[in-house]
Amino acid sequence: MYEVRVEAEFAAAHFLRDYDGKCENLHGHNYKVFAHVKGASLDGGGMLLDFSKLKNALRSVCKTLDHTNLNDMDVFDQNPSAERIAKYVYDALIAEMQHTGTDLTYASDKKNAALSAVDVFETDTSRARYSPAG
Questions:
Q1: CB under 8 Å to 63, separation ≥6 — which residues?
Q2: Contact 5/32 with Cβ under 8 angstroms?
Q3: With b meaning 16 or more CB within 10 Å and e meaning fewer, what string describes 18-40?
Q4: E strand or H helix at 59
Q5: For 59-109, what is each residue's pLDDT tens digit?
Q6: How distant, in Å, are the alpha carbons of 64, 89, 96 from that of 57?
Q7: What's the N-to-C CA distance of the chain in angstroms?
Q8: DSSP character for 22?
């Protein structure tokens, strides 16, 4: 099995509801996001997936989050935890790659490459990961 990983960053504010601690107050992070793609075979050029296509798509997704208050986005249901952000990025990255003609939907033996996980780091030592079941 081969795996490639690209990363992007964004800065955003948020606060957590139903949380008893300092993170219930508005604050910000410089998020780092890693996208992992796995596959069993390489293309004719010896690559699993073109790094630049994946990196451009991830940057595009992160740009939609950059310098926002994440609580203002309906998708997070007023509670933009790192876990929910990871799931959002995963889904948005799948959609963004489909616009370029690359289907990274997971769980298909026939696909050369599939998005296997998205990591969202709030700090260097705190990470949430989303990966699909299967």
A1: 10
A2: no
A3: eeeeeeeeeeebebbbbbbbbbe
A4: helix 51-65
A5: 999 999 999 999 999 999 989 999 999 999 999 999 999 988 888 886 555
A6: 11, 10, 6
A7: 16
A8: G
